[in-house]
Amino acid sequence: MKSGWQQYAFARFSALILLIIFATLSLLATEIDSAHYWRQQLKTSPDINQKAQYYYDLAAEYWYRNADSSVYFAREGLQLDTTTVKPELYGKLYFAYAIANANLGESDSALYYLQKSRKFFKKHKNTFWEHRSLEQIGGLYRETGQLDSALIFLEAARIYFVEIQDSASINSVLMNTGNVWLDKGRNVMALKLYLEAAAYDKAFETSVDGAIVKLSMAIINGNLGSLFKEIEHAKHTYYFGQSQQLTEEAKQVFQQKKHQTGVCYSVMNEIAIHISRGDFKKADSLYQQYQSCARSNDSRLIFSFAFNQARVMAETGKPDSALVLLQKIDSLQGRLLIPPLFYESQLLKATLLYDQDEKQKAYQLAENAIKWFEANEADYQLYQALVILQQWQQTDGKLAEALQTAAQKATAFEKITADATNELFDELRIKSEQKLLQQQLLLSETKQKQQRLRFNILLLSSIFLLLAILMINRILFVQRKKVRLEKLLVEEESLKLKAQNLHQTEQLNKAELERQLQAELAKSLELENEVKEHKLLLQSLKQTSLTQLNQTTREKLESFKNAMSRRRDQEAYSTLLNQLDKASSREPLADFEEVFLQMHQGFYEKLLSINAQLSRSELHLCALLRLNLPSKEIAELLHITVGSVDQKRFAVRQKLKLNTDQNLTNFLIQL
Asked: How far apart are CA 165 and CA 171, in angstroms?
């Protein structure tokens, strides 16, 4: 049971950690005094535009303190005479009313008034506020789950803010866009945008807000580390290293600013990282050092520290103490703000109860956790829970249930693999975009150098021409007219020749730059083909693994059929075995061959034109060798031994009539 819990890394959050800071009594007193001041101003001001400005300022002031008051002041402002209020102020009142409704959870009303404010600003050509409205519309679409629409509006706002170089607005829209990608489950894209946003915040490194963003990025890196744990160890290690580094940097800022809540959240993340790596000694040491965090007024911190301590106890031979802590977590259920971790704690409790032979309770808790993970698409946690449940069912002789659990587990692993593939694709796309941007910058710098060169040449030519004219004017006094004219013609011919040479040089440089650009485009296309081929291979490997698993499971479970006493159970058992046979019958390389032939048209025809006696399996082997795969991976894909692969390679060489000094793989790649 320990190995399953050591594999657990982080709960998968769909949004950033928010550190909630409540207003103090002194702030409330200031708010009351401020409200009294504004009401006096509204009563005494004779200027209707000044009243409109007061109403907007009040609505904006109460956006996050008291949304009801914000709605009230914005509504009062909108009741002013539209013919006398400046259009800019009236549009801002629509905007304020929309944000206040959004803070009250009235998304439909907020979207309606944001659309009105956008149209109002567009009509009166207030471009900045028009795009602020666009950004808020994008944020609302994100909150209502319309993520693709949110990206469209946020990108339109970002382009404008970049044009006017408004750093604060760019920072805001990039953070919002990163949140959308995070909601879409694309962690790499979210990290990229958060880092871009941080570049526009000069105080990022030393501010509390910057530390919150760093801690959020640490959690995202932890999510990526968990995602790649079962798939690619190198990336798993890299992302957890990044998570630990960012967490430590955030904690240092919180400590400098004496922000105890932030320190506790950072420590909580550090403990989770150590547990995920199996270093329970460091995790326990941190827990002992920061026990004050476990006594916080924040129920999330109390819960998280109790859960992590229970995991450490469970892994270090203290199951009874762990169960006591888990009972404490049950008592906190009504105040929990992190549901994924709660169901993780229930699963841990189930494993401890199972070890104490309280199997009925253990099964019930595990099934409840699995239902929650499945309903909320927590694929990694679902996979780990199904692994544990299948082990129990096999141990308890519940073979039919174990078979169903195995099918569920395979589906969950397939989703994890798909998520990992998306993240890898995002990494490749970002690298490609960065490379293309560098090329564009290089081309731009080259053009600037050429323009400066032209300017310098023109300046020198002008100076030279002016000097020549002065010389000619001087010579006019001492030489005859014919000599002066001949000299002028000679110099003009020289200038023409230089200009022609310069033009030829520019043409050659332009041709060279175009050639380089074409070469880079060809490399980009080649990279895209490689991504498609690797994705295709990943699918084939996955299909092969599933086929082998189904066949192995089918062979092992066949002997249990006659052991069942009831005919109905035997029939149900046979149905399940037939389903496994059907799943095992699919040819693993069917999808691979279809896409490969689309990408390498005419490959089989060229081989058959050399020798029409090549078999289908030999053509499959040639296709895999064309991708430069080693014999071990080819054997796994074709479901044969490495020795059989070598025999097939020899047969293909004979049929293609290759010399002993010719490499088969190189021949197929160049074909």
From this structure: 11
